[in-house]
Amino acid sequence: MNIVVFGAGAIGSLFGGLLAKNNTVVLVGRHCHIQRIQQKGLRIKGKTQKLIQISAIENPQDLSITPEVVLLTVKSYDTEAACHHLRHMVRDHTMVVSLQNGLDNIEKIKEVIGQKHLIAGVTTQGVLFEEPGVVTHTGIGTTLLGELDGAPSERLQNLICVFNQAGLHTQMSTDITGEIWRKAIINSSINPLTAFFGCQNGYLLENPVLEKIVEAICTESSIIASHEGIQVSPKEMISRTKEVIQETALNSSSMLQSIQQGKRTEIDSINGALMRKGLGKNIDVSLNRILVELLTSFYSIK
Ligand code: PAF
Question: Considering only CA atoms, which residue is closest to atom 3 of ligand 1?
Fold first, then answer.
């Protein structure tokens, strides 16, 4: 398959690097990372160890293949701009696969690209951006992909095969919207807490005070989700969140990585979006609100 990874940061580089085994892959990303990959290849360390020679470009206009799949892995605040850039690559049968954190990506992609191209996904793979050209695979997670209407389409099944052949544990979801919400609930505690306390994911269960806060945030976020018609229970989400924390114990969350790199965070698409949904339904959003306020007042990177 011809695959373009749009947003080759930590997650995008891991997926692109592994998919390059059996596919023609082009990474699109930022200057320093792309330049180093062009010079020395992409190095994946940790749970996966590989040095991969892979095409990498900075400017989407330099793309020389017609993609069958565009893997969208940009940060949620860049989704709209990315969609405008990649619009010209999309042909009748192109699939645009979102593997992003946050609750507002799908609407933005639908608006610019159109729903028929869209496959939605979530992943619990843990990846750390070490330095330009190098990422570390810190936690082997699972990826779920689904059509928005839940259909087990042929294109979806083919895509799942391609991901599994690359060694990316991938399953079909018939409720991908629910999974995006469940992932946002998981991210709503792990990401801001690790960002704020500057700790790896695993520390959230080593510190009993933080463990209680994780449980309280999970509960609030799950209640918000269930008022939006998502089938979740706080108990189930607390245990799923703890599983992800254990599986990615050595990972620095994407939000902590953003803070450490002096970049904007995805707080608005995760806790901000949960807060707005909850306010719309008149339910308690005090924990999500505090997290948004803390993160934005301490790290006001626009
Ligand atoms: O955003 C992240 O960092 C990831 O979604 C996860 C699964 C929390 C692992 O760090």
Answer: 253
Tens-place pLDDT, residues 82-117? 999 999 999 999 999 999 999 999 999 999 999 999
Q: 184 CA distance to ligand 1 centroid (A)? A: 10
Q: Is the CB of 257 under 6 A from ligand 1?
A: no
178-301 matches 2-174 in CATH topology? no
**Residue 126 CA, closest ligand 1 atom number:** 9
Report pTM. 0.94
> What CATH number has the domain spanning 2-174?
3.40.50.720
Task: Report the pLDDT averaged over residues 2-16.
Answer: 97
Query: What b/e sequence results for 74-100 when a residue is b if at least 16 CB atoms lie within 10 Å of its CB, and e otherwise?
Result: bbbbbbbebbebbeebbeeebbbbbbb
Phi-psi region at 102: left, alpha or beta (left = phi > 0; alpha = psi -120 to 50): left
Task: Give the start-to-end residue ranges of the domains of the chain.
Answer: 2-174, 178-301
CATH number of the domain located at residue range(s) 178-301 in this protein? 1.10.1040.10
> Is 254 near ligand 1, meaning CB less than 6 Å away?
yes
